[in-house]
Amino acid sequence: MINQLCRLAIADLRGKHFHIPHYQRGYRWGAKQNRQLLDDLTRFFDNPNPKSAFYCLQPITVKPIGSTADPCYEVIDGQQRLTTLRIILALEQLMDEDNDLTFSIHYETRSWLDDIFDSMVKSRDENKRYHIDLSENFTHRDIDSWHILEAARQIINWFQPKDGKRSISNFKGSFYEYLTNDKSQDKSVQVIWYELRDGSDPYETFKRLNDKSIRLNNAELIRAMFLSESSSFPCDPKWIASFGEDFQNLVESNERERKQSRIIEMWDIIESHLRNARFWAFINDDNCTSQYSCRIEYLFDLISQKDESQKDPLYTYLKFDSMLSEEANNDCWKLWLKVETCISLLKSWFEDRYYYHKIGFLIAEQGRRVLVELLSLSETLDKREFKKRINEKIITLIHDGGMSQGSILDYKYDENPTHLKRVFFLYNIESHRQQENLEFFPFELYKNQRSWTLEHIHAQNSDRIDQSNKMKWKEWLEEKRKTHANLAKRLPADERLNCLNTTLSEQQIDNKNYTFNDFKRVFDMVVDYFQELSQKENAHTAEHDISNLALLSGSTNSAISNSVFEVKRQMILKADANGVYIPYCTRKVFLKYYHPDDGDLSVQQNYYWGNIDRKNYLEDIKTVLNEYIVAKKTEVGNE
């Protein structure tokens, strides 16, 4: 037997019998949950143009027990919602005897609660406000009955506030009318009814749904939609008619089983694809997995065009339900083929060097929203126009959303940090794309680092040093002593370097009389030494322009900031050797790989970031980002 999934109106619960098993805790909804439910329902009822024709409650998961003729349903998940509905109906009947829609609930370990809904009594005070209590005949005044009674009081009080905006007349009138509308009427209230028929153990299902507050998710609901016995898989009437009448039902049944078997097989294959770390990082903006216990739900979110700001936890399932109703004959197969088409398209982009890098950049920067948009555009545009649109999106993004019409090469660290970071991210991605001998850009490694910053390649000044943290001064000095000692071995005749090393070794930073001014004097001596080496090449000293910046993770940047180039280089090499992800272009900077093929190899000095280094670095940035530098309409790039 296959589990059944459908929507039931509150009216469809009339006369049903529910059994709350021993493993369920007692009723514990408080004022917050009850108020939220009443607020949501009233807002929906009062809205003349609601987004949906019905208000949908969270799933109720049940398993039929007892005789087929008069079934009772064991409640596995949804007891709190079901009990609250029963309280509301009990109050309705108390206020108006003509309101007779009820269902019964039996509590296995608290059987006296079976009678509590019929034991409620009302009274009115001198201000004509209603009060709810339990009759004297109801003698079990325990914690469970207290919570149910308290919920009843909260609900009735909600309908008679002091400002008079709501009323008991409203409760007995339009509220009850809408609450009990059937599915064919507008503004009905419905629950997602998930009925276990596959022989699965109710207690194990309960544990799975309640461990760590996990609830029946959209993926499971959509799976049940496709595989339920009530799902529709209509066949071509002409094809069916080609069989004799005695065989037509059998053929339709076999075709249904074939399609559902295909869905089960492809479901597992798709889930496997989505659990590939590289693929997941490509299509997901932050590489987060905690939100999706079933990764295929992310695919369903894309197809349903769910906005990231959407708060309704059932949005995707309800959208699929709506899409299914739009298909002729509620054809589940046509809807499933949309799922297969979507994953096939994403896989084709993932395997294509052009799409992988450009679309991957957009997703990383703009999230699911842009991926939904691109999936939609791909259905209407030819290949050439689609690529053009991708390039335009990238240009708009790195040019301040289209506000900046100048060159990205003019961005400055202190003026355009956000867009500069995007430029360097794109620079690394495009460097991978344009070099066939390089592997695809590792989005999975990039997104595993939660923060990325821009690092000044050339040494900065002491303004960025924490003047109150001697430990930071000590770390800085120790790194300089070690690096400069190695540097002195390569430049033994450099008297100034030898003098500088002597000064470094003499610093008594643990001395209580050692001040920031003492440290700053040594800091400036070190920076000046390398500054003068750089200035021998007539280097410009602009600190914040694009030729003096590289992309680094926040943790790596904090470790090397305020160090001179040679120290930074050594620390980045060490981090790289220890498996820390260093972006490709940043590695090239600190390994001094940006240089022309000149004979004397003078540019390969490792001690400072000089004018020739800056010039070669900038030329490479211009070459790699040529099609994006100026914000103008671009032609389609080469594949």
User: How would you characterize the largest beta sheet?
Assistant: 6 strands, mixed
The fraction of residues assigned to DSSP E strands is: 5-15%
Number of helices: 24
Mean pLDDT: 85
Number of domains: 3
- Oligomer class: single chain
Tell how many strands the DSSP assignment holds.
10
Q: Structural class, from helix and strand content?
A: alpha/beta
What does this structure look like?
The chain is an alpha/beta fold and 639 residues long. The protein has 3 domains: 4-215, no CATH class; 237-408, no CATH class; 431-628, no CATH class. Helix content is 50%, strand content 9%. The protein has 24 helices and 10 strands. A hairpin with a 5-residue loop joins strand 6 and strand 7 (130-134).
In short:
The chain has helices spanning 31-46, 79-95, 143-158, 168-179, 202-210, 218-227, 237-241, 245-274, 277-283, 296-303, 315-326, 332-351, 353-366, 368-378, 383-398, 417-434, 443-448, 470-490, 495-505, 516-535, 554-560, 565-577, 584-590, 611-624, and strands spanning 4-9, 17-20, 54-65, 72-77, 104-107, 120-124, 130-134, 188-195, 452-456, 549-553.
Give the SSE map.
Elements: E1 4-9, E2 17-20, H1 31-46, E3 54-65, E4 72-77, H2 79-95, E5 104-107, E6 120-124, E7 130-134, H3 143-158, H4 168-179, E8 188-195, H5 202-210, H6 218-227, H7 237-241, H8 245-274, H9 277-283, H10 296-303, H11 315-326, H12 332-351, H13 353-366, H14 368-378, H15 383-398, H16 417-434, H17 443-448, E9 452-456, H18 470-490, H19 495-505, H20 516-535, E10 549-553, H21 554-560, H22 565-577, H23 584-590, H24 611-624
Parallel strand pairs: 2-4, 2-5, 3-8
Antiparallel strand pairs: 1-8, 3-4, 6-7, 9-10
Helix pairs in contact: 1-3, 2-3, 6-11, 8-12, 13-14, 13-15, 13-16, 18-19, 19-20
